[in-house]
Protein: GntR family transcriptional regulator
Amino acid sequence: MKKFFIPLVVLAFLALSFTNKPKITVYLIGDSTLSIKAVNTYPETGWGMPFAWFFKSDVKVDDRAMNGRSTGSFLKENRWQPIVDSLKAGDYVLIQFGHNDEVPTKKTYTTPEQYVTNLTKYVKETREKGAMPVLITPVARRAFVDGKPTDTHKEYAQLVRDLAKKLDVPMIDLTAKSMALLAEMGEDKSALLYNHLKPGQNPNYPKGKEDNTHFNELGARKMAELVLQGIRELQLPLANYTVDHQ
Structure:
């Protein structure tokens, strides 16, 4: 029987071709509630930071969210086009805006019509590259009335829900999920999720901090877990790449 010898260089090439398969990139676009934070703002944490650790090495989470951005300012500052240029089939774009779109006194304000137009652009251009858009309603602020959480994103969250239905886009209702978590924890204990600090407690905030919009490490992880829960509920293929998936 003849013996066939495969040159080492061929074996090396084959091994490299199997290990260097393209990674799935999950782009996160949005505002400060999911962005990567500077060291001097610790313990403020965006939910995109712990979210990146939920996946195996096949997946790269690229968090492009930025503090203070709306659907409009993200476009105007040319933060979207570089993502479009890099998108490939099989990638994902998770889209969560609203906090800065909905406030009329902010420079980043977008009307409801502009908000829908901008979200539609993100969805359309993602799909054109063969990637998967996922719309996410704005994560809840800690706002209670008579002991119950109130929805500060009511109009803009509903716009996301309506658009998702119209365009048949996967949607995670993070507004509803995060409000349910706040209700479960209650008005006092829910403060443990946000960037609340007493004077002198942290050198980054010598005068203390009471922020009911941005999260600390615990809050960011809890919100990231809700997003992951939504991905699983939607049965997106991305769910098969979590670290606990067999």
Notes: The first helix runs from residue 8 to 19.
